[in-house]
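User: Okay, second chain of the day. Same drill as before: sequence in, structure tokens out.
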Amino acid sequence: MMKFKPNQTRTYDGEGYKKRAACLCFKNEREDEVLLVSSSRHPDQWIVPGGGMEPEEEPGGAAVREVYEEAGVKGKLGRLLGVFEQNQDRKHRTYVYILTVTETLEDWEDSVNIGRKREWFKVEDAIKVLQCHKPVHAEYLEKLKLGCSPTNGNSVVPTLPDDNSTLYVTSSQTPGKPSTVR
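Assistant: Same drill. Structure tokens below.
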């Protein structure tokens, strides 16, 4: 299913979730500093770069395209961290990847067109900044910090099972409330 928005086509999966992709962009492979961008709706708030997938686009390709448009960076696409669901106000299903930045553009599409900014944050600081207004984005980083431990109840191993089924992390978008895994 698709919906049209000016200059954009929104794509939805069979369950009515908007298909999105995002990247946690890191300065290096230590994954201790992450790049956040200013929100287009609320320029004083920071978010993880990402957005809607285009028709026929693969999640990894969409994630790389969104980061290039929103943050003006290119890099090495790494592992899929997980697929996060947001159910409360909007039904989104976001594929979140790890990207190690190899090139930073001085001027990029969203900086020129809408004045978007970008800034490097220590992971701990980024979680604090995101928790107030984008708790699902903070969850991406919390999951990264927890690593691959499948015993904590709200994190999943970031590799897909052998049967190629997708693992989802759902978010109630309520701060402090644990995620659920389906």
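The CA atoms of residues 125 and 179 lie 21 Å apart.

User: Thanks, on to the next one.
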